[in-house]
């Protein structure tokens, strides 16, 4: 099968399309599903792996990547199932998370995927898993946002940001979305109550206070946001290592048990949050926004696009047309 492979850490050009062995369902794969992949998407997660970001090398190989096929988000059709799989049958349209998804086939645990709602295409479904799970985990599980709370999303036009706006709206928060000028109108249409153009206004200096500041872009620091929090409010970052010195702040706040800072991260990639996301998509409460679709053989261009740091919603990789 064809797959986007990287055999060494480096720039987008290290990604090559190669013929590799196709996964199968055999003994030991009783709870696994084989998916014929239709689409995937590119996340910062992918280019951090490709670049060989230091904490990633600790688990993925110091000099040579162990996991050599790129990708984590997947949508496609069930091709085969293990004998203990109960949720799916051959031919089902499914989406979810699976390492090595920039390939024609992947084998995945059944609890990491769910059925694609009827109202979504394969490309749309592939734009959802990682970023929507990050948004739900941050706002529902960690922040436990409630009706009427003032929630500010910084980086509201990115992958996590555009889902965070919609999830915060679903929980009936009063949502302020921060993005650059060209993104103001479409992000407002996602349901934000207030818009701030960060090229014209610094939200940390406008005197307003928020119960939750979710920095989806990781462009600000906890220090700079602290005075914009209500008495019981807190700041959350989607990337505690960015800017680099923020890591010290994250570590310090966990030692001092500072309740004003939380770093959610993405820890669970399936389960009940994926089911909630499926229901919200089906009900039209949330939807993915796709900036561009690249074919698999243009994977390096797709990485360059996302690495630029200004993606509008998501960049999708179409593996199988239609
Ligand atoms: N994707 C995942 O699954 C995942 C999971 C966990 C954690 N994370 C981390 O979360 C962060 C965001 O991920 P993502 O997938 O949402 O990235 P993304 O799609 O690349 O979005 C980044 C967004 O940041 C905005 N931005 C850039 N500079 C900004 C600034 N100075 N102020 C405000 N916004 C700014 C950009 O909007 P403009 O074009 O308007 O500047 C862009 O839309 C990354 O650091 C990533 O490592 C990602």
Structure at a glance:
This protein is of the alpha/beta class. The strands form 3 sheets. Strands 3, 4, 5, 6, 7, 14 and 15 form a 7-stranded mixed β-sheet that branches. It has a 6-stranded parallel β-sheet with strand order 10-9-8-11-12-13. A two-stranded antiparallel ribbon has the order 1-2.
Key descriptive features of the protein:
globular; binds NADP nicotinamide-adenine-dinucleotide phosphate; Rossmann fold; single chain; alpha/beta; six-stranded parallel sheet; Quinone Oxidoreductase, Chain A, domain 1; 26% strand; 322 residues
Describe, in plain words, how this protein is organized in 3D.
Helix 4 (129-142) packs across helix 5 (159-170). It is globular, with a radius of gyration of 20 Å. The protein is 27% helix and 26% strand. It is built from 10 helices and 15 strands. It has 2 domains: 2-128 and 288-318, Alpha-Beta Complex (Quinone Oxidoreductase, Chain A, domain 1); 131-262, NAD(P)-binding Rossmann-like Domain (Rossmann fold, 3-Layer(aba) Sandwich), CATH 3.40.50. The strands form 3 sheets. Strands 3, 4, 5, 6, 7, 14 and 15 form a 7-stranded mixed β-sheet that branches. Helix 10 (299-307) links the parallel strand 14 (290-295) and strand 15. It has helices at residues 44-51, 54-60, 122-126, 129-142, 159-170, 184-189, 222-225, 246-255, 271-282, 299-307; strands spanning 2-5, 16-19, 32-41, 73-81, 93-97, 105-109, 113-115, 150-154, 174-179, 194-197, 210-215, 229-237, 261-262, 290-295, 314-318. By secondary structure, it is an alpha/beta fold. The model has no long low-confidence stretch (mean pLDDT 93). The chain binds NADP nicotinamide-adenine-dinucleotide phosphate. Residues 43-45, 130-131, 134, 154-155, 157-161, 178-180, 183, 198, 216-219, 238-239, 242, 266, 306, 309-311 line the site of NADP nicotinamide-adenine-dinucleotide phosphate.
């Amino acid at each position: 099968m064809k797959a986007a492979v990287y055999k060494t850490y480096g720039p987008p050009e290290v990604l090559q399309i190669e013929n590799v062995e196709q996964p199968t369902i055999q003994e030991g794969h009783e709870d696994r599903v084989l998916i014929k992949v239709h689409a995937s998407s590119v996340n910062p997660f992918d280019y951090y792996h490709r670049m060989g970001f230091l904490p990633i090398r600790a688990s993925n190989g110091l000099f040579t990547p162990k996991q050599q096929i790129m990708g984590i988000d997947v949508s496609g059709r069930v091709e085969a199932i293990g004998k203990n799989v109960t949720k799916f049958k051959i031919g089902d349209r499914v989406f979810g998370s699976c390492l090595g998804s920039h390939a024609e086939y992947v084998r995945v645990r059944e609890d990491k995927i769910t059925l694609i709602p009827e109202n979504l295409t394969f490309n749309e479904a592939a734009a959802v898993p990682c970023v929507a799970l990050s948004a739900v985990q941050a706002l529902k599980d960690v922040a436990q946002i409630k009706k009427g709370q003032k929630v500010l999303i910084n980086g509201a036009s990115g992958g996590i940001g555009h889902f965070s706006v919609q999830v915060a709206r679903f929980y009936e928060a009063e949502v302020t979305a921060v993005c650059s000028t060209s993104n103001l109108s479409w992000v407002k249409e996602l349901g934000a109550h207030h818009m701030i153009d960060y090229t014209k206004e610094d939200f940390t200096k406008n005197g307003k206070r928020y119960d939750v500041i979710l920095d989806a872009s990781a462009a600000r620091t906890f220090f700079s946001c602290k005075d914009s929090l209500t008495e019981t409010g807190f700041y959350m970052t989607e990337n505690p290592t960015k800017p680099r010195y923020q890591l010290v702040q994250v570590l310090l706040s966990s030692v001092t048990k500072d309740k004003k800072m939380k770093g959610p991260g993405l820890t669970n990639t399936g389960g009940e949050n994926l089911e909630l996301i499926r229901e919200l998509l089906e009900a039209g409460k949330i939807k993915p926004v796709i900036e561009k679709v690249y074919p698999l053989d243009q994977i390096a261009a797709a990485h360059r696009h996302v690495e630029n740091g200004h993606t509008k919603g998501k960049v999708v990789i179409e593996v199988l047309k239609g």
